[in-house]
């Protein structure tokens, strides 16, 4: 009898737990938030991506590396003038040495001091070239550690110190506005996806009142690590329809709204 009583009590308790995110008040009665984010300052982002976003009045978040940014500086200046958010994606894009292409710049060989210099140098370059201060950060390869074996440690506290938010990569769920870690916000991949594959993610976030952050790279129709422009068109048409209850805004804008609530 005691076991049955405890089980019933547990079920009753679970039933009493409110769905906090569903009670969150998004602007203008919207049911969810949606942010589009892109990494690496790829050339296609300013030659094809931002012109398309501008047509639909959608502002996105772009996480830049200085070297790539400087190759298309005029395009990035136009992106800033159009109201897109510029974020920090590190100076040298360090990732794990498990990737052979990153072995000479492996996170396993970084110290906290070296990582801090890398991200602050990126901030300096962005401010010098674009006249804006980067308030948001995306972890290269979505990896949040430095060091190796027993010397491994998280650099999330470093991002929390210098930025409003940090975004990871290839996550599995949207962000809950009532239970979040701004230094490790989820980012769900949209590269290589059709709108029909993205729509269930939107529906899940809307049904639970959450914040869906989509993350991509190239902005074109085909190729590796490419967010399809045809998918973006359908997504923006859907998001811009008031009947669908979607607030689409840059990551920093959404984060500041959540903080204000």
TrEMBL record:
Enzyme Commission (EC) number: 3.5.1.41
One GO process term, biological-process aspect: carbohydrate metabolic process
Signal sequence region: 1-21
InterPro entries: Glyco_hydro/deAcase_b/a-brl, NODB_dom, Polysacc_deacetylase_ArnD
GO terms under cellular component: membrane
Residues in NodB homology domain copies: 32-144
Gene3D superfamilies: Glycoside hydrolase/deacetylase
Keyword line: Hydrolase, Metal-binding, Signal
Single GO MF descriptor: chitin deacetylase activity
One Pfam family matching this protein: Polysacc_deac_1
Name of the protein in question: Chitin deacetylase
């Amino acid at each position: 009898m005691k076991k049955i009583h405890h089980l019933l009590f547990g079920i009753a308790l679970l039933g009493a737990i409110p769905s906090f995110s569903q009670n969150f008040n998004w602007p203008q009665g919207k049911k969810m938030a949606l942010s589009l984010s892109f990494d690496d300052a790829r050339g296609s982002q300013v030659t094809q991506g931002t012109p398309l976003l501008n047509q639909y009045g959608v502002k996105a978040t772009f996480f830049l590396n200085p070297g790539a940014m400087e190759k298309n500086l005029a395009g990035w200046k136009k992106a800033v003038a159009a109201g897109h958010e510029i974020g920090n994606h590190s100076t040298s894009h360090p990732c794990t040495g498990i990737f052979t292409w990153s072995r000479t710049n492996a996170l396993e060989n970084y110290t906290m001091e070296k990582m801090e210099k890398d991200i602050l140098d990126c901030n300096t370059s962005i401010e010098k070239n674009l006249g804006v201060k980067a308030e948001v950060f995306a972890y290269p390869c979505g990896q949040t550690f430095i060091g190796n074996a027993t010397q491994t440690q998280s650099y999330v506290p470093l991002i929390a110190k210098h930025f409003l938010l940090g975004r990871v990569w290839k996550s599995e769920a949207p962000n809950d506005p009532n239970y979040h870690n701004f230094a490790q916000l989820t980012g769900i991949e949209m590269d290589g996806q059709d709108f029909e594959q993205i729509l269930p993610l939107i529906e899940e976030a809307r049904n639970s009142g959450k914040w869906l952050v989509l993350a991509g790279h190239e902005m074109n129709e085909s190729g590796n690590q490419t967010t399809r422009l045809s998918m973006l068109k359908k997504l923006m048409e859907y998001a811009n329809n008031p009947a669908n209850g979607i607030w689409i805004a840059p990551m920093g804008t959404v984060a500041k709204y959540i903080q204000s609530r």
